[in-house]
Every structure is written in structure tokens, then in C-alpha cells.
């Protein structure tokens, strides 16, 4: 599957692959916290807290 | 168990077809798991990280505000901290700030009942992107300024974005809320303490905007009292209703005359 495909295309021994995956996951998380989540938060239904604006 | 061996080509065809089907299902499953993890990450961000960021930013705003320091006297024997001077309450007409520009921080507020909560900045405006999410407490534009006749109405988050009004349910009748004005230009009403006391609370639907009318809940009445109103979301983690606290001015004092007794006893 897609993670299997990713795993097969990563270079190096298992330890290196695990480390690369962890780094990738961390990068995705940082990107989400910095840009993705702040961008989608205003569109969440529970965030409609003001009237008439 | 005995089974009839199927013909070679048919079996190969079937296994190739099933491999494609399982492959598609597997990818969909992985996408769903990934989406689930990302949504969990969103919850962590919304419920925790916005508080961390907000508290940091609001503490920074309060720290950077340029303002007069209340006078202190030399430390009493056995104490290392200089003692605060208790401000003399004044009940005459207080000075009042002029209207402020949008997103300008012009005051801070402290609630002694919320022991452990930091001093929060109050800024002009109540929209989320420029005030409530980033600056803390917001002042409803067009409502009275601190100390004035009418209704000094403010809004704050109950949860998330540093949740300045998180502990609003703890407020009891008679509890003080201390507002301290601070503008850079030294205009009338700056560097003044305004001590309000809780008179009533109510829960209303979000559309009930009369709670911030000059006379709370009486939109056509002419104001005579110096009121303050705090609004926030209710119940927690929901925007279904609003929790409203009405307060009335007890007294005021210039910052140069000392610190309100409500804050001194709290610090001691």
C-alpha cells in the first residue's frame, strides 16, 4: 500500500528508514501546527462564536 | 477436505483481481487512519497549543505595556519585598478614556477570585482573527469605556486561545474585578484602577445582544449606572449559549495613589 511503497523506496537499513520516517512525521506535524490547523480552524462549526460579524 | 483444482489461468486471473481489490481497500484504509491521526492532531492543537501560544503572547503584551507603577513603601522588618500602598477608594466621577482604535490594548484586568490566573490584556474589538484569538480579552466596540456611565462590555474565550474567561463560573456575587487602564498618550483616564463587583450572572442564546446594552437587557433605557459586562461561551467547548456576568463599579483610584486593597490582600 502507500506506506509499504514508501518503506520500499526509502534507502538504507531498517534503523535509517525508521529515523527518516520519524523525521517525516515530525515535519508533517510541524507543518500542520504552523499552517494547516490555523487555516482550517475558522471553518470548524464549533468555532462560530461571534454574532453579526 | 478435498477441492476441485480450478484451471490454472482462471486462478491466476482471480488472484490478480483480488490483489487489486485488496490493494484499493488497503490504500483507503491507510488514508482513513492518516486522516484520523491528523484530526487527533487538530484537537491537540486546538485544545492545548492555542492555549500555550495565547498565554505566552498575552503575558508578553502585559509585560510590554508602558505604564505607571503604583507606589510602594520600604519593606517592613522581616520582609524583603517592598510593601504596596493601598489606594484610597474614590466614589466621585471617574476619569474616562476616549474611544480607542481597533485592536489597541488599552487596559488589563485581574480577577482575585481566579487565583493563579495571570493579568489579561483588554483590547478594542471582538472579532476573533485580530483580537480574541491573539490579544486575549476584547472590548465590544461602541460600548462604554471603563468607569463611564453605561456598560463596559468585554468578551473572552472560555476554552482555547489562552481561555481568559475559563473560570467564569467561579465568580460569585460581590466578587471584585479590577480593570487598570493604560494608554501610551497619557490622556484622561489612563493609569486608573476601576474596581467592579459582580451583581448578577445569566445564560443567554448567542443572539441575545441586549446583555451588552448600556442598561443590560433594557436596550432603550437611559443608563445611570456604571456597569461592566463579561461575556463568554457556554457550556464549555461549545458555542451554543453565552455565559454573562454583570458587574457594577464599586470605586476607582489613580494608579499613582497605590494599589486596590483587593489586589494587595491577594498578593499577600
UniProtKB/TrEMBL annotation, chain A:
<protein>
    <submittedName>
        <fullName>Uncharacterized protein</fullName>
    </submittedName>
</protein>
From TrEMBL, chain B:
<protein>
    <submittedName>
        <fullName>Class E sortase</fullName>
    </submittedName>
</protein>
<feature type="transmembrane region" description="Helical">
    <location>
        <begin position="20"/>
        <end position="48"/>
    </location>
</feature>
<dbReference type="InterPro" id="IPR005754">
    <property type="entry name" value="Sortase"/>
</dbReference>
<dbReference type="InterPro" id="IPR053465">
    <property type="entry name" value="Sortase_Class_E"/>
</dbReference>
<keyword id="KW-1133">Transmembrane helix</keyword>
<dbReference type="Pfam" id="PF04203">
    <property type="entry name" value="Sortase"/>
</dbReference>
<feature type="region of interest" description="Disordered">
    <location>
        <begin position="69"/>
        <end position="95"/>
    </location>
</feature>
<keyword id="KW-0472">Membrane</keyword>
<dbReference type="InterPro" id="IPR042003">
    <property type="entry name" value="Sortase_E"/>
</dbReference>
<keyword id="KW-0812">Transmembrane</keyword>
<keyword id="KW-0378">Hydrolase</keyword>
<dbReference type="InterPro" id="IPR023365">
    <property type="entry name" value="Sortase_dom-sf"/>
</dbReference>
